[in-house]
Write a structure and sequence with these properties.
This protein is mainly α. The protein has one domain. The protein has 6 helices and 2 strands, in the order αααααββα. The chain has a two-stranded antiparallel sheet. Helix 1 crosses helix 4. The longest helix is centred in the first third of the chain and has 45 residues. The termini are far apart. Keywords: Ion transport, Magnesium, Membrane, Translocase, Transmembrane, Transmembrane helix, Transport. InterPro entries: PPase-energised_H-pump. GO terms for molecular function: diphosphate hydrolysis-driven proton transmembrane transporter activity; inorganic diphosphate phosphatase activity.
């Protein structure tokens, strides 16, 4: 009997360790992908007409979007913890849906404002020898 119980505890500990390791690994993979995509966006911004004119605000556009996303996340978390308190299990799904709606609306407004402020009204992107003129509102719409 003791052998079965100690074996059960070992199996539980092994499963918990596997799950914690998998979650930590997934988190590091997501952060790595996020960092790589941010660097790629900065490289693309540096080869556009922003780099020629040395418009540093426009070149930092990918970082501004990420920064605004962090602020929107914090505001959405504030809504979830202070304004929509969950008192029963039935309230979990509506609270998550409210968080999704709030974050979507706030991020849409934030991306529009950042695009309007940080980007010039039109700019040129060089794509393998061809030039393409892009408007700031089109870039904001592409992010949505």
């Amino acid at each position: 009997m003791n052998m079965v119980i100690s074996s059960l505890f070992q199996v539980i500990a092994d499963n918990v360790g596997d799950n914690v390791g998998d979650i930590a690994g997934m988190g590091s993979d997501l952060f790595g992908s996020y960092a790589e995509s941010s660097c790629a966006a900065l490289v693309v911004a540096s080869i556009s007409s922003f780099g020629i004119d040395h418009d540093f605000t426009a070149m930092c556009y990918p970082l501004l979007i990420s920064s605004v996303g962090i602020l929107v996340c914090l505001i959405t978390t504030l809504f979830a913890t202070d304004f929509f308190e969950i008192k029963s299990v039935k309230e979990i799904e509506p609270a998550l849906k409210n968080q999704l709606i709030i974050s979507t609306v706030l991020m849409t407004v934030a991306v529009s404002v950042v695009s309007w402020i940080a980007l010039p009204s039109s700019f040129t992107i060089f794509n393998f020898g061809t030039q393409k003129v892009v408007k700031n509102w089109r870039l904001a719409m592409d992010i949505y």
